[in-house]
Amino acid sequence: MLHSKTFVKKTRGGKVNKQVREHYLRDDIYCGAPICKLCDSSAARLSPSASTILVLDTNVVLNQIDLLENSAIDDVVMLSVVLDEVKNKNMGVYNRVRALCSNSLRRFFVFANEHHKDTFVKEMAKESKNDRNDRAIRVAAQWYQSHLGGAARVLLITNDKENKRKAIAEGISAETMQPSSEDVEMEEVEDLRPSKRKVIYTEHKPMSEITSGLHRGIYHQGKLRVNRYNPFEAYVGSESIGDEIIIYGRTNMNRAFDGDIVAVELLPQDQWHEEKSLSIADEEDEEEDVHLAPSSADDAPRTTNLVQGSAGDTNAVSSRPSGCVVGIIKRNWHSYCGSLEPMPMPAGSGGTAHALFVSKDRRIPKIRIHTRQLENLLDKRIIVAVDSWDRLSRYPSGHYVRTIGEIGDRDTESEVVLIENDINSRPFSSQVLACLPPLPWSVSSEDLANPIRQDLRDLRVFSVDPPGCKDIDDALHCTALPSGNFEVGVHIADVTNFVHPGSPLDDEASQRGTSVYLVERRIDMLPKPLTEDICSLRSDVERLAFSVIWEVTPEADIISTRFMKSVIKSCAALSYIEAQARMDDSRLMDPLTTDLRNMNVLAKKMRSRRIERGALTLASAEVKFQIDTETHDPLDVGMYQIREANQMVEEFMLAANVSVADKILKHFSLCSLLRRHPSPTREMLEPLLRTAAAVGLNLDVSSSKALAESLDRAVGDDPYFNKLIRILATRCMTQAVYFCSGDLSPPEYHHYGLAAPLYTHFTSPIRRYADVIVHRLLSASLGIYKLPSIFQDRPQLTSIADNLNYRHRNAQMASRASVELHTLIYFRKRPTDTEARVVKIRSNGFIVFVPKYGIEGPVYLTARSEKGGGEWFVDEQQQKIKKMDGSLSYSVLQTVRIHMEVVEPQPNRPKLQLTLT
């Protein structure tokens, strides 16, 4: 049966086109229930003994995903209309739902209700999309009820009271997963009690008004990002005005969470804020103290003995656009980890108690929950999901999901890091493990005889990696040729020989996206037999590789490039320290050391040429922990040291990635997976320019080349000065992202940081799924394998790229959070005095960076933290904060002595406190 769907689509040029798509309806889609007498039971996923089958609506899936992941929940029908809605609203939840539906140990069945002739519903006039989808869910539930003929009870689970009412009226069994009516009444009574500071938020504008306002330029759309040092200060990056809009105070945030896509209205210009007037929120500041409109001087979080700069200072710098949230376009609510605010136990036991949940992430407001388990939860890290936030309530309302473990336990706190960043650390399923070849594995005679694969075992191949690296996915060789040139090869683990398109192993890798490196462990994208054995290019064993080989002149000019599947045998697996020691030891003249030195000479010339083109040499505050092998506690911490050996390997990996990008794009101009780095805007670079000007530097940011040359000139008497400037420059950059070549025009492919017109990721397929995709593209461009059919589906490729960006970002955040956790563990018993550098001035203090440990944090200049108190004001031009009497001042990049100590100003929220000594 054929049905036509008509919709309108806006083009990039602003035109609106009417499009018609054919929508096929079928009558042979199975219900998935083995007790059904009409459908093919071989397709059944539900339990043969199921007495109740659950049909879920979208809000239940979005808000109760943690509960659905509990093994007690089974025999669930997941409708395709629900999956589509979840995918559009929260990719993280969608991926978790797909994992549930593909898990053979769980009884979740996906029913394509949008393609079944009996369950598809047409849109009705004046019916919203949400109402249409709710109707589709009810129709599907009713069809199941009729189809199974009473063999099992079909129960619709919904969080929508109106949807439940309609379902019951239509003869469908329905229940909600919301708190009981008694609990809701208690909450409303509590919220509406008169108080000294009654917080009432502005009602959100309806979507129709938001859409109209965005079109007319009245409102501005963007993602809300809450300041990690001040939860009462947020920013919305707006393309429509080309600048970030400051949102100051909970009232102006208007119930928006970090990560929400919001509509913002600009405040009158006389209410705009300046960078200097923004402050660091103190841990003891109460949310109730921060809810006034920014027109009031009382808006800022409480600070002691502070005044702003003079009128002259204020006029010297233009104000930043400030605004307020008028509507939420897309919520970013998910599950949050934290603990309950300590409170006395209520009289009696067994009843429902009200409690405030405090997230570990300070950017998240407290959440009001109701629970009968208060006594058991007070000393636990728990997960809470948000259900709603009424405009008459100071706090959002949510519900308890599950307990993680004891507060302060390292395993519990590490689990919190994974959950908060949506990292899948579950063991690989039996279906995934079944895709692996049996162990022990070795290169076979068939592999060696395969005409697509070249035998390179006679080459002197070696790898250079961090100490203790087991997942070795790249190796190198460098051979002097009779012509005086060099043959240089980059050999990458041939992961796609074992990970086949569409297999459970491939699906799992695609969803995980990347390996995640925490301080004390690694969470693999692929199972360990592949990462540490079969694919790892270990020394003295034969392994399959994908090789890029160049002929290079002594001046590091590439004459020719070859790509091939190969068999290699590494002669040495060196650490960066070992490789550097070999190159530095003039007594060593063996062939391997000579190869290393030749490669290093070539790498330096390639690097120099790349920098001449405008590539940036930035710096990051990467931290290295020494971990006790038995207790897993940190023994030492310090900045990660970069050696010439690191830079040598990096240079040839960059060259391989550029060569592969050029090759695949020539063959597949519309479906290549590339990586771009957008140029930072002038506004993004403004903090760097302001800081540089304050210390007498004039940075040219007109191009990456100009900035690179300016950074090279930024030297002073202090040997750490230049690195600090480069770290600050790094923080002004945009994020590099994966994209499908067909989605953008060639000028947009540019990688700003590398000054490269084309770039991709090819060199780490063991730990990045992007590289797996690129390996398939390269194989197809060489005629080795046919390009998988998914490369014909541009929207699907775009979706994969989006997931890779999401996973890559989350992996970075999880790594940083793991560092912060182990920093707390390390300093808990080691109060320390050390040197720090001022990197950002605020109205009540400054942010410092501690070079020795790679740590950053706030230092307060208030009576609470500094003896004698006194009034301070900010000199924006000189980037200073100084006492009114002129007796003391602190300026950006200044060296200060600080004391570092772990304190707990709020229960269950330890932090590393930095104070001046």
Automatic annotation (TrEMBL):
Biased composition (Polar residues): 302-320
Stretches the record annotates as Disordered: 292-320
Magnesium in keyword set: yes
Annotated keywords: Exonuclease, Exosome, Hydrolase, Magnesium, Nuclease, Nucleus, RNA-binding, rRNA processing
Gene Ontology cellular-component terms listed: cytoplasmic exosome (RNase complex); nuclear exosome (RNase complex)
Any one biological process term the GO annotation gives: rRNA processing
UniProt cross-references to Pfam families, sorted A to Z: OB_Dis3 (PF17849), PIN_4 (PF13638), RNB (PF00773), Rrp44_CSD1 (PF17216), Rrp44_S1 (PF17215)
Domain PIN span(s) in chain numbering: 52-165
A GO MF term: endonuclease activity
Cofactor(s) required for function per UniProt: Mg(2+)
Principal location class: nucleus
Protein location: Nucleus
Similarity comment text for this entry: Belongs to the RNR ribonuclease family.
Protein name, entry field: Exosome complex exonuclease RRP44 homolog A
Organism whose genome encodes this protein: Quercus rubra
